Amino acid sequence: MITYRSVEQQYSFNFPFQLAHEEKYGEKVDNAQASFFVAKEGDLVLLGTDGLFDNVWDHEILNFFSRFDKIKKGKDEKGVFFGGEGEEKELAKELGIWARELSQKGNRVSPFAAHASRDGMSYMGGKPDDITIVIARVLCAV
Q1: From CA 83, how far away is CA 125, in angstroms rounded?
Q2: 3-class SS of residue 140
Q3: This prediction's pTM
């Protein structure tokens, strides 16, 4: 279950905010959105760039995590180890690889394609882009 999702920060469709040290190159860090939410011990926190969220739907990300949640320890069907120290790093890596694969598919209604359609544009497929993913597990909730 997704308990919190930040709002996309964009000027308009496909024109996201860019953080920079100097205002002439983008938004100052002070203008970034700050969010607070309650997390429980064991929760996974996922941070990602538009390269992830333009290509993978939220429900697909949930299915991806639930697949590995059932495995807990051991290897998945690809032979990748999950469930121990470094699990979050492996999850981020596998999710990034999958997002990249989806970004190159031309026959799919990606989140980016759906957003383009809502803005009156015709677009089909994924959107190749840089993909950055950080996954962290909450070890102790206060």
Answers
A1: 33
A2: coil
A3: 0.82
Determine the 3-state secondary structure of 7 from DSSP. coil
Question: CA-to-CA distance for 63 and 93, rounded, in angstroms?
Answer: 16
- Burial class, 33, CB count within 10 angstroms (exposed 0-12 / middle 13-18 / buried 19+): exposed
**C-alpha distances in Å from residue 2, one per residue of 6, 13, 58, 62:** 11, 24, 8, 8
**88 within 8 A of 27, measured Cβ to Cβ:** no
Inter-CA distances, 21 with 15, 28, 30, 74, 100, Å: 19, 6, 10, 44, 29
- Structure token digits, residue 2: 């997704």
Q: Which two tokens stand for residue 29?
A: 């860090």
Please say whether the beta carbons of 109 and 78 come within 8 A: no
Q: How far is CA 89 from the centre of its chain?
A: 14
The pLDDT tens digits of the residues spanning 27-37 come to 888 888 888 88
CA distance 91 to 44: 11
Handedness of CA 63, 136, 91, 106 (dihedral sign): positive
